[in-house]
Amino acid sequence: MPEILDQARTQVLGDGVGLDQAGVLAVLNLPDEHLPAALQLAHDVRMRWCGPEVEVEGIVSLKTGGCPEDCHFCSQSGLFTSPVRSVWLDIPSLVEAAKQTAATGATEFCIVAAVRGPDARLMKQMREGVAAIKAAVDIQVAASLGMLTKEQVDDLVDMGVHRYNHNLETCRSYFPNVVTTHSWEERWETLRMVRDSGMEVCCGGILGLGETVEQRAEFAAQLAELNPHEVPLNFLNPRPGTPLGDRPVVEGKDALRAIAAFRLAMPRTILRYAGGREITLGDLGTRDGLLGGINAVIVGNYLTTLGRPANADLELLNELKMPVKALSATL
Amino acid sequence: MTTMTTTPLWCDRCGEAATAAAHPACASARQLEPPRFCPDCRRRMKVQVLPVGWSAVCVEHGEIRG
Ligand code: SF4
Ligand SMILES: [Zn+2]
Ligand SMILES: [Zn+2]
């Protein structure tokens, strides 16, 4: 057994204290033959500190495309020659999407907009949309609308948005290679305001942007410092027309190493499968990740790409004897 | 009005001419993506992805759903 896993067994599994950056790096550098042991330990940590439930979420794009920012992985930036066009979702369709999501047994519905930060029109659409969802559907509403002002944070709390997603995307040292129109620190500032407001903080990122393994460890440590309620983990799905459109996808084993390492850095967080798992991990790898530290999934489609049918994920959870977290348990 | 074409003129993923069996990578990618280009006129469509399904609208040829 490699030393780092012995250390993690005592420190993370035993005491609930996450690995630091050096420890995460050691896990990311484990040779293939120790990957099963790392995944098993990460799974044990998840079971001990989070329990067997899996949190299921659906997401929808309220405003797609035409974003003024230049995140190099994103097909919704208006600055690249991506084929994604700008489009707004109307409120009846938004409510219908929430109903479809609730019908899968999901307890979370996240409304996402491709913007630098919300303007008055978007905030009005949110206010009406969240109220319409709450009147019609039993589901918790989360939002992801970019960088916020303090006033907008307060408005979202007032609307009853219980969790806010704002991804740091990658570590601080690599961020300027991925985004030039705003800084990592600006994102951190929004996260700080969200935290102070009492909303749950959801913050993750994308692996496979060209960061080094060391930078992946740096990212895990920075997320652990933020201590978010939820960490969505995406794997780059290279989008045509974006600056990262020709990058290779993350190797399945590297993705699994990262899942184990992020779990060992953050024993109590909700670690969610987000985009890209279909191409990086496939069906078999998806199962390995759920048995290696993941305890939440996005079901159904993403914002501009499609996912597996919700049924396929729900059947897998059933087979793995992992109950879907019920709404009563989240309130 | 939605016009049905049996042989699309344009690849609905990359927008290039759709010659027979010419876009295997696009066809494979399309299993996890909605269409982006109208197969009849090559215009970029307005595409809304929903948790279940998607809709794509060409200003000239109308809406398709999947
Ligand atoms: S801010 Fe969001 S929508 Fe805009 S380019 Fe960046 S990731 Fe895409
Ligand atoms: Zn094509
Ligand atoms: Zn057309």
Strand order of the biggest β-sheet of chain B: 1-2-3
Percent strand of chain B: 15-25%
Contiguous helical run count of chain A: 14
CATH fold call of chain A: TIM Barrel
Binding site for [4Fe-4S] cluster (chain A): 67, 71, 74
Organism (chain A): Micromonospora inaquosa
Family (chain A): Belongs to the radical SAM superfamily. Biotin synthase family.
Catalytic activity (chain A): (4R,5S)-dethiobiotin + (sulfur carrier)-SH + 2 reduced [2Fe-2S]-[ferredoxin] + 2 S-adenosyl-L-methionine = (sulfur carrier)-H + biotin + 2 5'-deoxyadenosine + 2 L-methionine + 2 oxidized [2Fe-2S]-[ferredoxin]
3D structure, described in words:
The complex is a heterodimer of chains A (331) and B (66). The longest helix of chain A has 17 residues, at 120-136. Chain A has a single domain, classed as TIM Barrel (Alpha-Beta Barrel), CATH 3.20.20.70. With 331 residues, chain A is of the alpha/beta class. Chain A has helices at residues 3-14, 21-28, 35-49, 91-103, 120-136, 150-159, 175-178, 184-197, 213-226, 252-265, 277-280, 282-290, 310-319, 327-330, and strands spanning 55-64, 87-88, 108-113, 140-144, 163-165, 200-202, 205-207, 230-235, 270-273, 296-298. In chain A, helix 3 packs parallel to helix 10 (252-265). In chain A, strands 1, 2, 3, 4, 5, 6, 7, 8, 9 and 10 form a ten-stranded mixed β-sheet that branches. Chain B has 66 residues and is mainly β. Chain B has a three-stranded antiparallel β-sheet, with no helix packed on it. In chain B, strand 2 and strand 3 form a beta hairpin. The mean pLDDT of chain B is 90. Chain A binds chain B through residues 58-61, 64, 83-87, 89, 93, 96-97, 100-101, 104, 240, 278-279, 299-307, 310, and chain B through 13-15, 31-34, 36-37, 44-54. One zinc ion binds at residues 38, 40-41, 43, 58, 60-61 of chain B.
